[in-house]
Amino acid sequence: MRQVPNVHDAEPIPEAARAAIEELLQSGDLFRYTAPQDAPVSLLEEEFASLLGAKYALAVSSCSAALFLSLKALGLPRDARVLIPGFTFAAVPSAVAHADCKPVLCEVGENYRIDMGDFAAKLKGVQAVIISHMRGHTSDMDAIMELCDARGIPVVEDAAHSLGTTWGGRNIGTIGKVGCFSFQSYKMVNSGEGGILITDDADLIARAVIMSGAYEHNWKKHKGPKGQNSPELELAFARWQNQVPLYNLRLSNLSAAVIRPQLPKLAQRVLDGRRNHDYVAERLNASSFIDVPAPLPPEVRAPDSIQFNLVGLSDEETRTFAAAAEARGVKVQVFGMSTDNARAFWNWQFIEDLPELPQTRAMLMRACDVRLPVRLTREELDVITEILLEAMEETTARAAA
Ligand SMILES: Cc1ncc(COP(=O)(O)O)c(C=O)c1O
To answer: How far, in Å, is the centroid of ligand 1 from the Cα of 36?
Structure first.
C-alpha cells in the first residue's frame, strides 16, 4: 500500500536551538532587555537585517504585531484608508482595524495577484497600502511602487509567506517602506509565534521600537547595521522618546533562540521548496482541469505549499474533488468553500461596509491549497500528485456518468 506523506509536521528545528534554549533556561535571562548586549533577540535582528539587506530590523510577537506597528509608525491619522488585497489572511484587515484605520479592499486575479486595474482605481484617498504576498505570490511590485511613489503613498509589504522570495533580484520585504515577516508555524522559519519588520527608515524604526515596548532607555540596545552605533538612529530615538505609546509586543529570547539557527538553513529550504513546487506544478498542469498559475517574470518564488485552480468544475464537483483527495489522505483546502475560512474576505465581517469583490470571490471558490513541506522527497511528491490526479479523475468520471 502506498504511504501518504506526513505534511502536518513543520520543518525540523535545528539541533543548535536546544543548546541555546538550555542556556537560557539555566540563566533565566528570557527578557530581551535584561542583558546589556547580545541578547538572542538583538542578535536575531542584526542577522535578519543583514540576511535581507535592510538597515534595521525589529523582532516582535507576530507578523500581525509587525503590520500594526508599521501602520502606527507611519503616523497615520485615525480612520486613514489603507488599501489591502481582497485575498489575504484575516490578520491583515485586523491589523488595519487595530491601528484605527479603515481597510479598502481591492480585487485579486485568478493568478492570486493584485488586479492592477482595480488597485489603481481604488488608490484615490488612500493613505497607505499593505501588499500581502499571499501564499508567496508576488503582485506586480514595479507597477505598485510606481503608482504609490507618484502619489507619496507608503507601501507596507506583508511578506508573511515570502521569506526568501525575490522580485527582479530584490528581496521581498525590502521593496516597500517596510517589510513584515511571520515566524508562526508553517512558515519557512518557525518558532510557533513571532514576527519581524525591516526598514531603512530611521524614524520609522525608532517609533516602532519604542511602541513595541522599549520603555525608558531600552532603545539604546537597538543598533544600526552590523550591530554598530548609528548616529542617525540615535537622533531618531531622541526625537521620539516619550512621544508615542508603548504597546508591548516584544519577542522573547526563547523564540529568538529557536529562530536563529534556522536562518542559515533558509537558502537551502528555498531551493528545495521551489524545486518541489515546480515539479508538482508541472505534473498537475498536465490535467486540463487544473491550472497552477505561473509566477510573474521578475519573481523567483520560495513556496512551501501549492495553490491551483479547478478549471470548468461546478461547486458540487469542486466539493467532490476535495473529498476524493481527502479520502485518499491529502487535505485540499478550497479557500472559498470551507466554513468561516479566514482567507475569504466575506468572513471579515468586522469591516464596516464590507464590499463585494466578484472576481476575487470567483477565484476563491475554485482555488485549492495543499501543503508541500520543503523536506518532502520526490517519491512523496509523486504520491501527493497522484492522489490529486486520481481525485480529479474520479470527479470528472462521476460528472460524465
Ligand atoms: C498573509 C498573512 N499575513 C499575516 C499573517 C499574520 O502572521 P502572524 O500569525 O505571525 O501574526 C498571516 C498568518 O499566517 C498571513 O497568512
So the answer is: 32
Run means of pLDDT, 10 residues per run, the chain, 401 residues: 91 94 97 96 98 98 98 98 98 98 98 98 98 98 98 98 98 98 94 97 98 98 95 98 98 98 98 98 98 98 98 98 98 96 98 97 98 97 98 93 83
Pocket of ligand 1 contains residue 63 by CB under 6 Å: yes
Ligand 1 pocket residue status of 195, Cβ below 6 Å: yes
pTM confidence score: 0.98
CA 134 to chain centre: 6
**381 with 350: CB under 8 angstroms?**
no
Q: What domains can you pick out in the chain, each with its CATH number? A: 15-264 (3.40.640.10), 266-400 (3.90.1150.10)
Separation of alpha carbons 303 and 292, rounded Å: 13
Ligand 1 atom nearest residue 343's Cα: 16
pLDDT, residue 398, reads 84
What is the identity of the amino acid at 267? A
What pLDDT is stored for residue 399 in this prediction? 81
* Ligand 1 atom with the shortest distance to the CA of 187: 14
- Assess whether the C-beta atom of 126 lies below 6 angstroms from ligand 1: no
Among protein residues, the one with the nearest Cα to ligand 1's atom 8 is: 63
Neighbour count for residue 44 (Cβ, 10 Å):
26
Dihedral of CA atoms 31, 225, 298, 115 in degrees, nearest 10, equals 50
> Helix, strand, coil proportions of the chain in percent (round to 5)?
45, 15, 40
Nearest alpha-carbon partner for 317 in 284, 358, 282, 289: 289
Which atom of ligand 1 is closest in space to residue 64's alpha carbon? 11
Q: Which atom of ligand 1 is nearest to the CA of 186?
A: 14
Grid cell at residue 215: 520603555
Per-residue CA distances from 217 to 70, 117, 237 (Å): 21, 47, 9
User: CA-CA distances (angstroms) from residue 177 to 1, 18, 22, 106, 247?
Assistant: 52, 35, 37, 20, 21
Residue 98 near residue 53, CB atoms below 8 Å: no
